[in-house]
């Protein structure tokens, strides 16, 4: 397993911002994404980015979250702004070399350990 190391989670008030980072230790992936999982909920797609730079977002975060990647550093970022209490979840970085749908969590073979994001009202 190639480790994906996440950082940047924490506690923030509603309306605030956080930036998550995910570094892949020793290879470059064609697609990287962020998913999140709230207690008692299924893991859901948040944002994804391809090697080409194409970006994809869940409707719930469009206009508030921005995904980006630094291919030279094998790192993907998730800039989260205008955070809401419903954004509270464990955020997971995911990566894959192949797949047909950036939204499908089952197409990602590599996962980070998760980082907690808590938004207080």
- Overall pLDDT level: 94
- Counting H and I runs of at least 4 residues, what is the number of helices? 0
- Proportion of beta-strand residues: over 45%
Low-confidence stretches: none
What level of helicity do the residues show? under 10%
Could you say which structural class the secondary elements and strand pairing correspond to?
Answer: mainly beta
- Shape descriptor: globular
Biggest β-sheet, characterized?
7 strands, mixed
Counting DSSP E segments of at least 2 residues, the number of strands comes to 11
Provide the gyration radius in Å.
13 Å
Would you give an account of this structure?
With 121 residues, the chain is mostly beta strands. The protein has no helices and eleven strands. The chain has strands at residues 4-7, 10-13, 18-24, 31-37, 44-50, 55-57, 65-70, 75-80, 89-96, 110-111, 115-120. Strand 5 (44-50) and strand 6 (55-57) form a beta hairpin. It is globular, with a radius of gyration of 13 Å.
SSE layout:
Blueprint: E1 4-7, E2 10-13, E3 18-24, E4 31-37, E5 44-50, E6 55-57, E7 65-70, E8 75-80, E9 89-96, E10 110-111, E11 115-120
Parallel strand pairs: 2-11
Antiparallel strand pairs: 1-3, 3-8, 4-5, 4-9, 5-6, 7-8, 9-10, 9-11
């Amino acid at each position: 397993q190639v480790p994906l190391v996440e950082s940047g989670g924490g506690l923030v008030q509603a309306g605030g911002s956080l930036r998550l980072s995910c570094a892949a230790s020793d290879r470059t992936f064609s697609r990287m994404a962020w998913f999140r999982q709230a207690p008692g909920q299924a893991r859901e797609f948040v944002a994804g980015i391809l090697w080409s730079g194409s970006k994809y977002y869940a409707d719930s975060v469009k206009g508030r979250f921005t995904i980006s990647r630094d291919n030279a550093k094998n790192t993907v970022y998730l800039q989260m702004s205008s955070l809401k209490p419903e954004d509270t979840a464990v955020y997971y970085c995911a990566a894959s070399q192949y797949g047909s749908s950036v939204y499908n969590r089952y197409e990602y073979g590599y996962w980070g350990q998760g980082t907690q994001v808590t938004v207080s009202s």
